[in-house]
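Appendix B: complex inputs.
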Amino acid sequence: DSGVTQTPKHLITATGQRVTLRCSPRSGDLSVYWYQQSLDQGLQFLIQYYNGEERAKGNILERFSAQQFPDLHSELNLSSLELGDSALYFCASSMRTSGVGTGELFFGEGSRLTVL
Amino acid sequence: DQQVKQNSPSLSVQEGRISILNCDYTNSMFDYFLWYKKYPAEGPTFLISISSIKDKNEDGRFTVFLNKSAKHLSLHIVPSQPGDSAVYFCAAEDIQGAQKLVFGQGTRLTINP
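Resulting structure:
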């Protein structure tokens, strides 16, 4: 158990819909990262938050957005969903206090999104 | 642009033998490298890392080798055990820059009894 909690574990929805994925980081971790893993692909970095502020952006679509709340949990919002958005979405947290760099990440079990 | 590449999608090794997983990178600014292991229905878990100032790091059965001039790293598992069967991801980071952890596509390792 990594200590990172993601909900829901599975989600099936239709094209055009909007979903929210939730992540609770490990206790004490200030950084939260979101990654997307499509079929047979590596983990693609989407976005990072550090102590409530956006710290870095990767290949995140404009239809996607995220935020980190004062209690440090984070939500990834995916809207106007397309078939190609079907993927595993991982949240990870880090114990780095500066927010710079990544080092070892602790991953949740992922949220599997299926868009029909 | 795939900055971290694992060119072998799968690898099959007999139990007790050595498993060697390879990873190549293109960004010369990467200065920290990690290997993650992933079982089905679980998130990736950290396995071992190496800083660019070293060329080898060992932890039990796992050793990571870094060849900076070739921009290549490898993970050696010896002896291989059935529980090592998993997908292994190589990852790299430019710690001083804003670049985040970049992952390879993964290699599925199967250890045969």
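Chain A has a mean pLDDT of 91.
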